[in-house]
Amino acid sequence: AGATSKGVSPVLFSKQNYTFPLISDDKDSIPDRYLKMTKGNRKKAKAAFEATLKWRQENSVDTILSQPYPNLLLFRALVPHGFLGRDPYGNVIFTLRCGYLDFDLMKKHSVSHNQLVMHYVYVLEYLWNILEPSPDAVMTFVLDLSGVSLNKIRRSVGFIKQFCATIDQHYPQRSHKTLIINVPKWFGMIWRAISPLLRDSTRQMIELYTNDKQQTEALQTYLGDNIPQDMMKGTPPSKLLFSSMQAEFEEFSRARTKEAGGKLLDIKFA
């Protein structure tokens, strides 16, 4: 059982073991996603999967959802992001508006690039274990570049590289489509530096759009009615991204933190 966009499932509030190790029925315990990623090369798939298992152990990923998470609202204040709902095909939509990363708030709370990446690991673990536990489930990811400048790219390049590498290596074949929107004209040179970090199978799922008619049509096709108007126009967020699905996620985190005797850090949003 888990959460739906129509309401919060009672299971989210009950004390239980939210531990999710990766398992597979394959003879070598290799998830099908890793075999697809390597085009059936079992040796490469096994090596990639073993690297993921090692990474999960080193970062306590299997138990990350069972732990208190008091800084959830801090990370949401650092950069607008969240679940928007489902696309017309039933896949969960997640968006990240990295051009509005608040570097001052990041410095104030001493948040590192690694901590920011691990926050998104927390989000993905919730997505693939609570919202969509099916091993072949996929998502629609919208990376909005409105507000991005060369200076912001330089300041966040460490996060961008680590984020791309983590998603590509440890969550393969999870994309229905990745839309990079409101792309500035100069982004081509940045993309040439980032794209080699991604596997061919990952790059094939990515589409880049500038703020034009083609982008509008793509958003309408892939997101349906779940398109924030400020995202469509490439303007700063008028308010925090919010949906019933995002509210359920935050309530899940709040419940885990409360069970441990804590509470979410109070952040004043702009």
Helix content: 40-55%
Largest sheet: 5 strands, mixed
Terminal CA distance reads 35 Å
Q: What overall form do the CA principal axes indicate?
A: globular
Strand order of the largest sheet: 1-2-3-4-5
Radius of gyration over C-alpha positions, nearest whole angstrom: 18 Å
Describe the 3D structure.
This protein is α/β, with parallel strands linked by helices. 44% of the residues lie in helices and 10% in strands. It is built from eleven helices and five strands. The protein has helices spanning 32-37, 42-58, 72-78, 103-108, 113-131, 150-170, 187-194, 200-203, 213-223, 229-233, 244-259; strands at residues 81-86, 92-96, 139-144, 175-181, 206-208. A five-stranded mixed β-sheet has the order 1-2-3-4-5. Strand 1 and strand 2 form a beta hairpin.
Structure, briefly:
With 270 residues, this protein is of the alpha/beta class.
Which tags fit this structure?
single chain, disordered N terminus, alpha/beta
Topology diagram in text:
Layout: H1 32-37, H2 42-58, H3 72-78, E1 81-86, E2 92-96, H4 103-108, H5 113-131, E3 139-144, H6 150-170, E4 175-181, H7 187-194, H8 200-203, E5 206-208, H9 213-223, H10 229-233, H11 244-259
Parallel strand pairs: 2-3, 3-4, 4-5
Antiparallel strand pairs: 1-2
